[in-house]
C-alpha cells in the first residue's frame, strides 16, 4: 500500500474512533442525568413517606448520576476532544504501518 493510502487509513481510523468516543460520552451524560433525576424522585418519595432507607438510596443515585454526567461531559471539552483525536490519529498511523486495520483484536 502506498504512503498516501496509509495516511488515508490512519485518518479514517482517527475520525471513526473519535466519533465513536463522542457518542459514548453523550450516552454517558444522558444515562447519568437519568440516574440523577430518578434519584431525586426517590429521594423526594422517601422524604414524603419518612423512609430513610429510600432517601439514602435516592441521594446515592443522585450522586452517582451527577458523577457520571460530569465525567462524561469532561471528555467533551475542546481540549479533551483534540487530545483524543490526536491519540486516535497516532494509533491509526501505527496500526496502518504495522498492517493492522484497527478493528482486529490485536490492533
Describe this structure as you would to a colleague.
It is a single chain. The chain is an all-alpha fold. The protein has one domain. Helices cover 84% and strands 0% of the residues. The chain contains three helices and no strands. α1 (3-48) packs antiparallel against α2 (52-74). It is rod-shaped. The model has no long low-confidence stretch (mean pLDDT 81).
Number of helices in the DSSP assignment: 3
Largest sheet geometry: none
Tell me the structural class.
mainly alpha
Low-confidence runs: none
What can be said about this structure in brief?
This protein is an all-alpha fold. 84% of the residues lie in helices and 0% in strands.
List the helices and strands and how they pair.
Elements: H1 3-48, H2 52-74, H3 78-98
Helix pairs in contact: 1-2, 1-3
Question: Tags for this entry?
Answer:
107 residues, mainly alpha, 3 helices
Amino acid at each position: 500500500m502506498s504512503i498516501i493510502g496509509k495516511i488515508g487509513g490512519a485518518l479514517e481510523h482517527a475520525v471513526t474512533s473519535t466519533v465513536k468516543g463522542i457518542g459514548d460520552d453523550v450516552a454517558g451524560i444522558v444515562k447519568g442525568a437519568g440516574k440523577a433525576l430518578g434519584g431525586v424522585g426517590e429521594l423526594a418519595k422517601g422524604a414524603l413517606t419518612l423512609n430513610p432507607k429510600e432517601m439514602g438510596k435516592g441521594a446515592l443515585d443522585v450522586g452517582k448520576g451527577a458523577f457520571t454526567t460530569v465525567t462524561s461531559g469532561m471528555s467533551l471539552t475542546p481540549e479533551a476532544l483534540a487530545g483524543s483525536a490526536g491519540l486516535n490519529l497516532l494509533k491509526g498511523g501505527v496500526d496502518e504501518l504495522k498492517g493492522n486495520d484497527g478493528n482486529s483484536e490485536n490492533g
